[in-house]
Amino acid sequence: MEMKVQLSGKGGDMQEETCPYAYTRAIEAAGGRDNLTERELQLIDMGVRAGIQSAQELIAEKLRERDE
Questions:
Q1: Quick one: CA torsion of 25, 3, 44, 59, rounded to 10 degrees?
Q2: Owning domain of residue 28
Q3: Residue 14 pairs with which residues in a beta bridge?
Q4: CA–CA gap between residue 51 and residue 32 (Å, rounded)
Q5: What pLDDT is recorded for position 50?
Q6: Are 7 and 21 in contact (CB under 8 A)?
Q7: What is the pLDDT of residues 19-60, one digit of tens each?
Q8: What pairs with residue 8 in β-bridges?
Q9: How confident is the model at residue 17 (pLDDT cuts 50, 70, 90)?
Q10: Residue 5 CB: number of other CB atoms within 10 A?
Q11: How many domains does the chain have?
Q12: Where are the alpha helices (DSSP H) in the chain?
C-alpha cells in the first residue's frame, strides 16, 4: 500500500510519503494487519496522514511566530 500526504510548501503542493514507522505502530496498536479489514487499514492510513499534516501546520505556525 503506497501512502502519500499532501504538504503545502513555498513553491506549491508536493507529495511526501507518510511515516512508515507511525503507520506500522498504529497497525500494531490496533491488533495487527491480520486482524484488520482493508477499510480499517485505510482509516489508519488516513489518521497517520492527518497527524502528519497537523504537525506540519503547527510547525509552520510556530516558525512564522518566531520570525515575527
A1: 80
A2: 4-67
A3: 7
A4: 20
A5: 94
A6: no
A7: 899 999 999 999 999 999 999 999 999 999 999 999 999 999
A8: 13
A9: low
A10: 19
A11: 1
A12: 20-29, 38-67
